[in-house]
Amino acid sequence: PGASGNFVFLRNTDGTPPVQLGTGAPTAMSPDGTWAAVIDTGVTTERIRNKLTLLPTGVGTPRTMDLPMDIEPIGGDALGRTNWSRHSCDFSADGTRLLIPFGRAEKGPPRVYVYDLPRNSMKPITREGVSAPLCYTAKR
Fold this sequence. Notes:
Strands 3, 4, 5, 6, 9, 10, 11 and 12 form an eight-stranded antiparallel beta sheet that branches. The chain has a two-stranded antiparallel sheet with strand order 1-2. It has a two-stranded antiparallel ribbon with strand order 7-8. It has no helices and twelve strands. The chain is mainly beta. 0% of the residues lie in helices and 43% in strands. Residues 80-87 and 134-140 have low confidence and may be disordered.
């Protein structure tokens, strides 16, 4: 990893040193704390990404998926740089799905998607042009 990427760390609240998990733009933590979801490489000058990586917070191997759409951040700063520090994705309560509130398929209008991790599949849950941070509750 080069100096141009964001580094993802996990730190306990007990004062122990942080542990580097990998690189990327952190976007969500699984409910059980075993995975950190990151977008692409975390290079803050690039706004559009199409890779999602799950970094294990303990023993395990990172899992990177090529997405069938582009993910964009929710906002940027006054200089136009991407602000990936905002909470732009969220896991379902059972940790099997990831909400992506702003994606574009084939350069089309943005919409909200859900990525199903066990099935390795993506589906839109809003019509084109409807995107925003929102609450997501998994069906049980």
